[in-house]
Structures are given as C-alpha cells and as structure tokens.
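[job 0412] stage=fold_complex status=start
inputs:
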Amino acid sequence: MIAIIDYGLGNLRSVQCALRRVGAESAITADADEISGADGVILPGVGAFWRAMENLRKSDLVNVVLETAKNGKPLLGICLGMQMLFSESDEHGRHEGLGIIPGKVIRFTESLKIPHMGWNEVKHGTPSPLFESVKDGAFFYFAHSYYVVPNDPAVAIGVTDYGKTYASAVQKGNVFGVQFHPERSGPVGLEMLTNFYRLCKTT
Amino acid sequence: MDYKKIIPCLDVKDGRLVKGVHFVELKEVGDPAEAAAAYSEAGADELVFLDITATVEGRKTMTDAVKRTADGISVPLTVGGGIASTDDMQRLFDVGADKVSVNTAAVRNPDLVKEAAEKFGSERITVAIDTRKSDSLPSGFEVMVRGGREPTGIDAVEWAGKVVALGAGAILPTSMDADGTQAGYDIPMTRAIADAVSVPVIASGGAGELEHLSAAILEGHAAAVLVASIAHFGKFTIAQMKEHLAAAGIPVRL
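[job 0412] stage=fold_complex status=done
writing structure:
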C-alpha cells in the first residue's frame, strides 16, 4: 500500500486515480502510523511553499516524512512536494524545507511566461530506476514558478529546459522528487508511477 | 522548450454536453466524461469544462460529471463557470479538477483572485475575460460579464494586468465579437493582453481553420489555443491541428 500524505493541500485525488490505474493500492491519509506502515510514501503539494510546510508541521507529519526518508522506504515528492524535500525556498521570503536533499528552491527569472505551465521534455540525468523504460526526452506536464537547485548536481536524474536547464527530477537514495505531475502526464506518467510502485513492492 | 498547447473546451449543462462532440467512437454523445477521455487519448494537452448550468440542482450533477471526467483522463482539467468563492473551488478540486477558471465573480470581487491564489497557488487559478470591441477605452477592448451579456466599462488589457498582479496564473480571453463565428481568433485583442502580462494567455473564441490556430500563437502571442466547434464537429483531429502547428515552426507535443 502506498500512502498519499494528506496535509490539506494537494492534488490527491488524481494521484490516487493514477495509482489505481497502474494497479497500486493507495490511501489518502494524515495518520502517521498508517504512513509509517506503508510500502511507499507520496508527498504531493500545490500552492505556496511556506503554507505547505506550515500545514505539514501543524498536522504533525514532518517526523514521519523524515523517518521514511531515513528508513529506506521509497518516498516520492511531486511538484511542491519535491521542492519541500530541499533545504529552503525563496518563495515569499526565505522558508526552511524538510532538508532531506541539500539545495534551494528559487524563482524563474527568465523572460519566458511564468508559471511554466504545460508539457515539456525531461532528459535523463544520472541513471535512476524511476526512469526505467521511460524514453529519454519524454513529455511530462508541469505547473510551477519555482525550481530546485540541488547542491550536488548528481542528484538530478532528469533535467528540463525552460529558458534555462534545471533539475526536474531528483533522487537521493530512496528519496525521489519530480517537479512535473506524473498523474497528469498521460501514459508516460503512468509508466513512471509503475516504476515507483515496483520500487515500493521490492524495497 | 516553450511548447504550445491545444485545449478542447467542452460546454456542459446539468452534467451533459451542450454541443455534441462528434467522435465516431463515442457511445454516448452527451456524456462529457466520455468526450474528455477521447480527447485525452487523441493528444489534447489539457481540457476545459465550461459549466453553463443555471440551477443549483444542475450544479450537483456537474460535480459528479467533473469527478467522472477527472478520473478518466490523464491530462489536466480546468473547470469554469459559476464559480463564486474559494469554497466552490475547493469542491471542484476535491473531485479532481486541476485548475479553476473565474470570470464574472472576479470582476464583482477582485479579491477572490488574490484569496484563491494564496490558498491554492497561482498555477491553479485562471481568469477568463470576455471582451468586446469598444472605442471609448484605451486598449479598444471592454470586459463583459454574465456570459458576455453585460458591459462593465472596464478596459480588458488593464483588467488582465490587474488580475495577474492579484495572482492569476493564466488568462483566458474570449472575444464576444469572434466567438462562434469560426472566422478566427481576435488576434489584436489576444496579442494586446498577451504582451501586457507575464503569465500564459490562452486564445479563445472563433477558431474554424487550422491557420487560425497558428495565427493565435505566432501573431497573437498566445501560449495555448482553446478549441471548440473546430474539434467537436470532427472538422479536424487534434493530431491534424498539432501537425499544422509543427509545420508552422511552433513547438508542440506530438
């Protein structure tokens, strides 16, 4: 069972529907015991960074996310959920993140339209099981104005070009993050979630 | 890359499609969920549901239609029409909508845009603007409300700038002069708004030929094109539209 963390923000339903399509059982939950008992954990998120962190703290769920990262179970942050894995964000002032992956979250300053909202290619970076059988340069759906800058460039398992090349998918051990929405990225998104599900079953 | 999008728009009333969508493979012509799934399969980049329901009873049916639709597609769904509060938005997000679009309610209460962007994120808030030509306003375009029936005296380009400052993540301007004519998008209006704001603009209203789509992007500076009749009546497939854009040198997801 995959736990989809419910802290009052996020596109939880579409994540759950996508998991169902790849045959994965999941639960939308705010229960720390249920989350720590799951085979894998998804941290979704939309909206403002500081509010998401505040909600996660208020829901008493920061520890269970940190423990999941530590104990080796697959953890996947989606969109803002990916950004929250990092040390800090510049969105609406400086705010501390979960600090699981060292690095920061900054705003696009390119002359292109912001938010970056639509389909874009993800090129493979450091090889990762998350991208197994996913074509290099496959299209995924994005909706964001901020992006991550990892301290260690090797954590980038996928990169995307939007005015500049940035890390659109990261991995640090059992912790994964994707800036795009696999649950809204057609068959290729489902393929990626299948890979994540496989990791959950075998870890 | 800055890939451009094709977004079919489905008009839904009391949970049923208003204009038929003429896909050969559709079993039930009036079901928005089935039409949406077919468009999603056919390569549409996103989908928009425009709820033109007038009654409270009908809105309940709409929530159910959104739920069934969102569950059956794997591309983002925007829902617009009759949204007046963040509670209305929350209800739609809860059943699987990825974004919402506000129109009249934003004009009546601009703070709604700010409140919604703070609560849900700019990425999820689109402001739709119905416009018509007006010589008495600086840009030459006036904001219309209540389904394009009521003039407001507000300049459309100025209004677009204001809602972006309040937190709108996209602008969907529809020309009341061009809508339904299939004679092409209102390029000067689309361009005036697209050049004035920092967020993506979705051209809407008037598409009838493939050339209209590329013109909205190349001349109108739109980031996406909304398509209705041109797609629903089977005149062109999504693939044909994308091939046309690609041939015109526009980056699209093929």
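[job 0412] summary: Residues 2-202 of chain A form a domain with the Rossmann fold fold (CATH 3.40.50.880).
[job 0412] exit 0
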